[in-house]
Design a protein that fits this description.
binds uridine-diphosphate-2(N-acetylglucosaminyl) butyric acid; single chain; about 425 residues; about 25% strand; alpha+beta; four-stranded mixed sheet
């Protein structure tokens, strides 16, 4: 069977300028939200990635007219006539369950198969269920389907037990269709939550406080289609910054939002990396061996769990020892075994990786066990001596737009091959 792979000849310093694509996690929330408009929306700066393609298929299945040129998408929701996306599409990504509150708002019912997404630990949806039911929906998840219906959605107060990104987004998406005011306490503050709120507001909604832990939504307002440009991808930006630092590179990343990167920039500075920020540009330069550090993942503005994996790959060759504590997902260290195959010395005890920096990694055949693990494998391949073969790259292409091409433009020797 043909299997697509990346082949990387490591040890080359990345140099040059590269532009960041639009944000995956913003895109996958904003595209379903466009169905709530009474007319077509045009969304710009979308990443050309597998998750977005799957959403396009799902929207078309539901009856929407969708045109996508790889960056700009026009979504006409006026012909949507189904409330039950199929499992074969929904299970290919995490964000498919954002369709549940959206279709509930349109039809007062929805049947959305439980979402898929990366296997990085328990990914409960109890807080989403709580948000939707507090606003007046009956929700059950029997048979692996989120089955939700309501006679009337009414604004209310929702306290989230943890600042879940998915539950915050699902509750906001329910609240815009609920009559009256909803207040969400302990909301996630991630940039993509803010971007979704801005998009909904551009459609005529009133979502206030996004980016803080208390979000207020005055619901029940008619929403219209909108023209909107989504934010750059925070995690792609971070992955490129880490790759630049790891190779002793000199890279200017454009089209980024430097303030979204503060947690990573602070850590890279601590490790001895030079960073300069200017408007939408981040300049990363490093040479010589970087210092090991300690970090703990947290919700925004803390260190993002989605950068934990590529950062661990970089720390594996830094001097001294490093500690990486994963606080968001309970099984996000499976990829460490792949790094060990390249010579990394990492011990995982409960939710902490203890990394003893080695002088170098050595290329071999490794597997991308999930999306950000794939990013870690790419960083390891760029550092590693000799040739690294990365298999299972479908995971990577779900979330990174032509990462091989972008890295090649910076001088990396990375090829995408199909055997
Ligand atoms: N949680 C619960 N109950 C819930 C919801 C979440 O206990 O109802 C727990 C989860 O089990 C998990 C933690 O809270 O341990 C965080 O989950 P969250 O809901 O915040 O994550 P998510 O919405 O499933 C999004 C991103 C992830 C990113 C996390 C954390 C999207 C589509 N996915 O996932 O992105 O890691 O937030 O920031 O936005 C990725 O891009 O590679 C990725 C995995």
């Amino acid at each position: 069977m043909a299997e697509d792979r990346y082949i990387i000849h490591g040890g080359i310093r990345l140099e040059g300028q590269v532009a960041v694509s639009g944000g995956k996690n913003a895109a996958v929330a904003i595209i379903p939200a466009a169905l709530l408009g009474s007319s077509a929306s045009v969304i710009e700066n979308l990443p050309d990635i597998e998750d977005v393609h799957v959403l396009v298929e799902m929207l078309r299945y539901l009856g929407a007219k969708v045109e996508f040129d790889g960056s700009v998408m026009r979504i006409d929701p006026t012909t949507v006539d189904k409330y039950n996306p199929p499992a074969y599409l929904a299970q290919r990504m995490r964000a498919s369950y954002y369709l549940a509150p959206v279709l509930l708002g349109i039809f007062m019912r929805a049947e959305v198969p439980m979402p898929g997404g990366c296997n990085i630990g328990t990914r409960q949806i109890d807080q989403t269920v709580k948000g939707m039911s507090t606003l007046g929906a009956q929700v059950d998840t029997l048979g692996g389907v989120i089955n939700v219906k309501s006679d009337k959605l009414i604004g209310s107060e929702v306290y989230l037990d943890c600042p879940s990104v998915g539950a915050t987004i699902n509750t906001v998406l329910t609240a815009v269709s609920a009559v009256g005011t909803t207040t969400i306490y302990n909301a996630a503050k991630e940039p993509h939550v803010v971007d979704l709120a801005n998009f909904l507001n551009s459609m005529g909604a009133r979502v206030m406080g996004a980016g803080t832990s208390i979000i207020r939504v005055r619901g029940g307002r008619p929403l219209r289609g909108s023209n909107y440009t989504i934010i750059p991808d925070q995690i792609e930006t971070g992955t490129l910054m880490i790759a630049a630092a790891a190779t002793g590179g000199d890279v200017i990343i454009t089209g980024a939002i430097p303030t979204h990167m503060e947690a990573l920039s602070a850590k890279l500075l601590e490790m001895g990396v030079y960073i300069r920020e200017e408007d939408d540009l981040i300049h990363v330069r490093s040479n010589g061996r970087l210092r090991g550090i300690s970090l703990k993942t947290q919700g925004y503005p803390g260190f993002p769990t989605d950068l934990q994996q590529p950062m661990t790959a970089l720390l594996s060759i830094c001097s001294g020892s490093s500690l990486v504590t994963e606080n968001i997902f309970n099984s996000r260290f499976k990829y460490v075994a792949e790094l060990e195959r390249m010579g990394a010395r990492i011990r995982v005890i409960e939710n902490t990786a203890i990394i003893e920096g080695v002088d170098h990694l050595v290329g071999t055949s490794i597997c991308a066990t999930d999306l950000r693990a794939g990013a870690a494998m790419i960083v390891a391949g760029l550092i590693g001596e000799g040739t690294t073969e990365i298999t299972n790259i479908g995971h990577i292409e779900r979330g990174y737009e032509r990462i091989d091409k972008k890295l090649r433009s910076l001088g990396a020797m990375i090829e995408r091959v199909t055997k």
